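Technical annex B. To support the medicinal chemistry partners, we prepared a structural model of the target in complex with N-carbamoyl-L-aspartate, based solely on the information shown next.
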Amino acid sequence: MEKLLSKDLLGIKDLTVEEMNLIFETADKFKEVLQRPIKKVPSLRHMTIANVFFENSTRTKLSFELAQKRLSADIINFSSSLSSIKKGESLLDTINNILVMKVDMIVMRHPDPGAPHFISKNIKASVINAGDGTHEHPTQALLDSYTIKERLGNIKNKKIAIIGDILHSRVAISNIYALQKLGAKVMICGPSTLIPKHISSLNVLIENNVENALRWCNVANVLRIQLERQGSNKFPSLREYSQYFGINKKLLDKIDRDIIIMHPGPINRGVEISSDIADSNNSLILEQVENGVAIRMAVMYLLSLNKLQ
Ligand code: NCD
């Protein structure tokens, strides 16, 4: 396989294992480019890419932008808070106005699940989902799986616990799809109010005790409490959450197993994870961010091949 099957990357659900492996192999090559003194290749110099963000982002936006620059693409950045969306323009009108300026690819983050899918059906340009509400965040799951593979050599039969606010997390859903396709066993852990009912249909183990989850897993992917998405009170207080579900040195010392710690960021230090663990040798948090650039270069490069045919 040399190309991705679709013009878009909307989610992991529709991606094949072969496509994921192609993305990983391509990311290996770009990771090598990123070690060179001149970290730039001309692969996308024929492409113009718009980063269209309707929701806040630090890592994902910077990572996409840097990946585009490393590939020599022309880029434009759109952020909804400064735009005519505030004047009542529809999503499709905004996108069509961007496209008429000869944009070839859209990287989109939106608070509504399915927004990039809707746009992709209505335009010819490639659409990459950079997070749609609580639905999917495919490049995050790809970079998470790539980072686990890099550290452990293989994902097959590894035990991964996803711990925290599963209910509001697109990272959790995309990670479950990616890890299961790659042969891992996945456990979900958190307070039952933060675990959606439908999750059992995804064939994951469910655990409400964080110590049990840590005793089981090789990798703990710790998720942020999504403060901005909590509609009603799902837990009494952040202090209590941290007391029962926070991952700290005392807990890991008690378990005394070699567990890899991951987190997609942004971290609420002292809530879901303590600083000594976030900054420890077992933490891959900064490796995840570093690998994100190579993974996004790979995705955009592979999608651009469909455009050249
Ligand atoms: C995540 C996101 O925005 O979905 N962050 C990220 O992209 N690195 C997770 C989060 O916001 O907690």
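Notes passed to the chemistry partners:
The pocket of N-carbamoyl-L-aspartate is lined by residues 59-60, 131, 137, 140, 170-171, 224, 226, 264-265 (CB under 6 Å).
The chain has a mean pLDDT of 94.
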